[in-house]
UniProtKB/TrEMBL annotation:
UniProt subcellular location: Cytoplasm, Perinuclear region; Endoplasmic reticulum; Golgi apparatus
Name of encoding gene: Trappc2l
GO terms for biological process, alphabetical: endoplasmic reticulum to Golgi vesicle-mediated transport
Protein name per UniProt: Trafficking protein particle complex subunit 2-like protein
Organism expressing this protein natively: Copsychus sechellarum
Pfam families noted in UniProt: Sedlin_N
InterPro entries associated with the record: Longin-like_dom_sf (IPR011012), Sedlin (IPR006722), TRAPPC2L (IPR044760)
Length: 137
């Protein structure tokens, strides 16, 4: 599951999950994790201002999933939920996936027809997220 969240209001700009039969459970997990993201950001305080991007790492593990977080310099939050049984994914791969998400999000923001804060409806972004999710599954 992947979520891109608006800076202050924490409403979703983009949500995608595979498999889709547990979609509601993923949404709950992702929105619960936004509180942890906010706690980590406030705990870091001024150190966040000095960094261009912030990989938050593992936010919290559950029995079935691991939840990772990332915040951009413009305070857009990315949350990724990965199956706990997937031991092939290392921290470097997760960080790389977040960088790809961030780069694709930056491409969307550069589009003059996109209004910041609107839900993301981009075929290129969908394709990138789908390919990333297929690698993980």
């Amino acid at each position: 599951s992947v979520l891109c969240s608006a800076p202050v209001q924490n409403y979703p700009l983009y949500i995608r999950s595979i498999p889709t039969e547990n979609e509601l459970k993923f949404h709950y997990t992702v929105h619960t994790s936004l509180d942890v993201v906010d706690e980590k950001i406030s705990a870091m305080g001024k150190a966040l201002v000095d960094q261009r991007e912030l990989y938050l790492g593992l936010l919290y593990p559950t029995e079935d999933y691991k939840v990772y977080g990332y915040v951009t310099n413009s305070k857009v939050k990315f949350v990724m939920v990965v199956d706990s049984s997937n031991t092939a994914l290392r921290d470097n791969e997760i960080r790389s996936m977040f960088r790809k998400l961030h780069n694709s999000y930056t491409d969307i923001m550069c589009n003059p027809f996109y209004n910041p804060g609107d839900r993301i409806h981009s075929r290129a972004f969908d394709t990138m997220v789908n390919s990333m999710m297929m690698q993980v599954c």
